[in-house]
Design goal:
The chain is of the alpha+beta class. It is about 30% helix and about 30% strand. The strands form 6 sheets. The chain has a 6-stranded mixed beta sheet with strand order 9-2-1-13-21-20. The structure holds flavin-adenine dinucleotide. Its cofactor is FAD.
């Protein structure tokens, strides 16, 4: 029997995870095409801790908390496939609050949310002095709640690992930009590739891909910048720190600290470095870890997030065409819910029974076929 051909355009966290799971199927051959420019996944900070959000969208919360919980299965799958150094670690997360009553509210919220998502773990209140016992250079006037379930992800390592496993499973990886001839035919470097199933996992670039076929897509880009330091600090087991305000501090292995990120609207697909924003991130980070004043920035990352007009992500099939799949609008939580979204799409395409209902996140509201002029 001839294998069905699945083509995935976009090799960020969604496309790469889908490619990885689909490439395990003996009945399919999978091609992943990725341009890579401005990719959000490689630019992202890496926070996996959605449980303290005050966002009111219940469908979003359910998806994203389940997405964080899915990391256990996901990492186990990667481990079984021979990956020894995993890109995700459950380090715990400190979430700082300006007022005592907000700390108590966070614990209460966690207690309520633990019923549906035990992955949140234990949640306890810590004074600034107790935080400094765990992270000695950390200076803050605010107390924090500590959630043992919080973790951090190295997005670049994950997509590299997924690509290696996918290629090992027989998948074909093509680097470059693709366009669509029609809903099942992809044009890549003058060659037309025909898909039995086509997945568009191109993040913020979905309008560019679909508008030539007459679709109107409710997705806009948002620019994000962040900085890295290579320090001599003993960061390996430090938790992620989420102080009030825009920046977060993520300690990775061997002294690496990631600080981010900016949220810049109306910048289109611009991925140039803005020195004022970069200096602002460093200054702010040094108010929490004063040693960083004397550290040189070792890396700057810039990427483009995808947002819908109601800030909700979508994924599923387009306009009743069960061979054309899309996922976009993951905004600032796509590292958290992206793998779970990709896994669900893969389960559907392979005809396996997924435990999750896709209806609340249907693309229908966000993608419309325009009538022919
Ligand atoms: C600075 C920053 C910090 C963030 N921090 C966090 C965080 O801490 N936690 C969290 O959960 N989320 C975070 N996010 C959000 C998260 O990174 C994104 O939601 C997620 O990575 C989106 O994944 P994706 O696969 O949908 O898109 P992307 O990762 O953007 O991947 C899309 C890919 O498609 C490619 N592509 C586009 N058009 C074409 C084409 N025509 N042909 C071929 N390839 C194409 C692009 O080049 C890109 O490589 C952050 C994002 C940014 C920018």
């Amino acid at each position: 029997m001839e294998k069905k051909h699945i083509i995935i355009i976009g090799g960020g966290i969604v496309g790469s995870t889908a490619a990885y799971y689909l490439s395990k199927s003996p009945d399919h051959r999978v091609t992943l095409i990725d341009d890579g420019t401005g990719q959000a996944t490689r630019a992202a900070a890496g926070i996996i801790c959605p449980w303290f959000t005050l966002k009111r969208n219940k469908d979003w919360y359910r998806l994203t908390s389940q997405g964080a919980a899915f990391y256990e299965t996901f990492m186990e799958d990667l481990r079984k496939d021979g990956l020894e150094h995993l890109p995700y670690k459950q380090t715990g997360t400190f979430v700082f609050k300006k007022k005592e009553e907000h700390l108590r509210h966070a614990v209460q919220l966690a207690d309520e949310r633990r019923v549906d998502c035990p992955r949140i773990g234990e949640v306890t209140i810590h004074t600034p002095e107790e935080v400094a016992q765990v992270i000695p250079p950390f200076t803050s006037e605010y107390g924090a709640v500590f959630a043992t379930g919080g973790g951090r992800l190295n997005g670049t390592q994950l997509v590299d690992d997924l690509r290696n496993l996918f290629v090992k499973n027989g998948g074909t990886y093509l680097q470059g930009s693709a366009s669509l001839v029609d809903e099942k035919t992809v044009l890549f470097q003058d060659e037309e590739l025909v898909a039995d199933h086509l997945i568009l996992a191109v993040g913020a670039w979905l309008p560019q891909l679909l508008s030539p076929l007459g679709y109107d897509v409710d997705v806009r880009p948002q620019k994000g910048q962040l900085i890295e330091f290579e320090t001599n600090l003993q960061t390996d087991d430090w938790p992620v720190c989420m102080p009030p305000g825009e920046i977060d501090l993520l300690p990775f292995e061997n002294g690496r600290m990631v600080i981010g990120a900016s949220h810049e609207n109306d910048m289109g697909y611009d991925i140039s470095v803005d020195k004022d924003i970069i200096n602002g991130l460093k200054e702010k980070a040094a108010t929490f870890i004063p040693e960083l004043v004397n550290e040189a920035i070792s890396k700057i990352r810039v990427g483009t997030r995808a947002y819908t007009s109601d800030y909700a992500p979508f994924y599923g099939t387009v306009s009743g065409n069960d061979k054309l799949w899309v996922a976009s609008g993951l905004g600032s939580s796509g590292l958290t819910n992206g793998p779970y979204i990709a896994w669900q799409m893969a389960q559907h395409i392979l005809g396996q029974d997924p435990s999750y209902d896709l209806t609340p996140h249907s693309p229908e509201k966000y993608i419309q076929k325009l009538p022919k002029a």
